[in-house]
Each structure stands twice: as C-alpha cells, then as structure tokens.
Amino acid sequence: MTRERAWPRPDDDHARVAALHELGILDRPHDAELAGLTRLASYVCGTPAAVLNLVDEERQVQVAAHGFAPVETSRDEAMCGYSILSREVTYTPDASRDAVFADNPFVTGELADVRLYASAPVVVDDEHVVGTICAFASEPAQLEPEQLERLRDLADAAARILELRRSTERLALAATRDPLTGLPNRAHLDQALPRALARQARALTRPGLVYLDLDGFKPVNDRYGHAAGDEVLREVARRLLTSVRASDLVARLGGDEFVVLVEESPGEEHEPRGPEQVAERVRAVLAGPFELPGGEIVRLGASVGHATADDGGDSPDALLERADAAMYADKAARSGGGGAGPSDIG
User: Average pLDDT, stretch 103-107?
Assistant: First the structure.
C-alpha cells in the first residue's frame, strides 16, 4: 500500500532544488567516485548497505550505492525525504518502532525492510541540504556516536566533491564562452572544428563555415559609446541564433567577427541547409535596424563569406582561412555601400 503522507518541504526548498540542479549530477550513470564513499559509509557503520541519495522536487535519486541496487523513488516515499529537513544526522536503531518511519514503504516491506537507519545530510555551499548519505540494515542495531560522526564526515566529503566538480565545470565553460554574448568563443570553435572534420572523414556530415564581420560597427561605438556597442553585439548574437538550426554552432571570434559552423547530413539534399543558405539567412536577419538602449536606431551591414570542407580533407585552419578570405572578398565587393556610415545612424 502506497504511503499517503507527504513529508514537509523545507522553507528554502526552491533554492535547495536549484542548487542541486546546478551540480549537474542527477540522471547520470552510476558514479564510481561517489560509490567509494558509500563503501566507506557501509564499513564505518558496519551495515551491509549504504547509498548516496539526492532529492529534487519530486524524486529521490540514488547516484551511488553499495550493497543495494540503486532505485529512483518518490520523494515522499523516501526516508531521506524526511532526513533532508535537518542538518543533523538522522538515526534510528529500529525504524519499524520509530513513529516517523514505521509506515514508510522502505520499512514495511513494500520497497525494502529497513530497520537500522542512519542518514547524514549532504550540505552544499554550507547552506542547502541536497541529499544524504545513509547506511542501513534489515536488522535492528545500535551505532556509536563516533560512527555517526564519521558518517557525517563522509557526507561532508560528498558535498566537497560535488562542489569541486561544479567549479571545474564552470571554469571549463568560462574558458570556452564569450562573456559578453554568451556564445562559444574561439577556443570552443578550435575544439569543435576538428570533431566536425572527423565526422566528415566517416562520411557522417560535411562541415562548412560562415564567416561574418559587421560593417559600420566602429561608428556606433565612437558615437554612442561602448555600452551601446556591447548591446549591438548581444543583439547580433541573438539574431544569429534565431537564423540557424540548434545543431549549428555560432561563435564569436572577437571584436565584431562571428562564425557559424554548419554540418550538412547526407539526407538533406532536398532541403539544403549548408553554408550558402545560412549565409543568406544571416544577411537577412542582420539587415534590420538595431535599437540602442537610448532609443536611437542604427543600421549595420555585414560582410559574409562561406566555405565548405573539401572532400579530400581540410585542416581546421585551412577551412577557417578560406571562409575568412571569402568574407574579405565580399567586403571588397561591397565597399562603398552597406556599412554604417553617417546616414545609417539616427
């Protein structure tokens, strides 16, 4: 019989769940590093099983386990749904005689036959209890205070591991993102291009590049200031993203130069969406007026070039250089028009 009673929610539950999602650990395969902590928890407490539970809006997810097959269950069915309400260790030598847990499906036999239960909170950023590391057994037993303290130490270690991974991922993201527009940067493109060319070598896709440089951007900066110029660049990024497929990569190389990495699949012959078609859409979306923060209206042109990888193989630098050369050829052909001259700024 399913337990009908729901655990209370912490006052900070919205922020707690947001902090959990920022860790990026949910719905990943079994975590070997964290599993080591559950083995230690089992050893410290002398129990046959221990798990690391994380609790989101509705679920308890066991991201690591020892001596127990990981399961996902309702937050309100999980014993740790109660344990996350406190920063103290939750401990009962016999859950079947505990008023809080006696009717829980992990105790009644519906999901398990837990008797001894000890659960230490995993607290990230010294603020949010995102889950627990718990040790349990199917027979009643007593734990010493020293064992419960060591279980708390393991929960703290789990929190530090999760925080360190999050920081590492943030640094990696920052290293490959343009801070102004949020687009991938040159470093990201330098990683993506070899992978795209490798897929071409396996006859999976055919990559191409669209290289564009804004015409008339400097007068906007000079007349209205860098804050206005920054907003123009952010709007260019937004427009570029709306003109490409989700699978295309839009990157800012620096200044007012952008690149779109396009990969055509063999089955797209009847609806071509290669670099030439993307270049046309890019011209179209950038042709419209830009409104500055002060309400002023400006129009910018864009010099756009494109190149498709050779069938015989291209190096990343060679493909980028050909797209860059095509862009400069377009700029030369358009010189004397299309840029943001005095008449383009109002």
Answer: 96
